Amino acid sequence: MAQRGKRYVLKDEAQAIQLLRDKAQQLNRTPKKHDFDNVLACKIKARLGPWPRALEKAGLKQVSQTYLDKKARQKEKAGGRKKPAAQRQYAQALNIEKPKKKENQK
Question: Is the pTM of this model over 0.70?
Answer without folding.
Answer: no
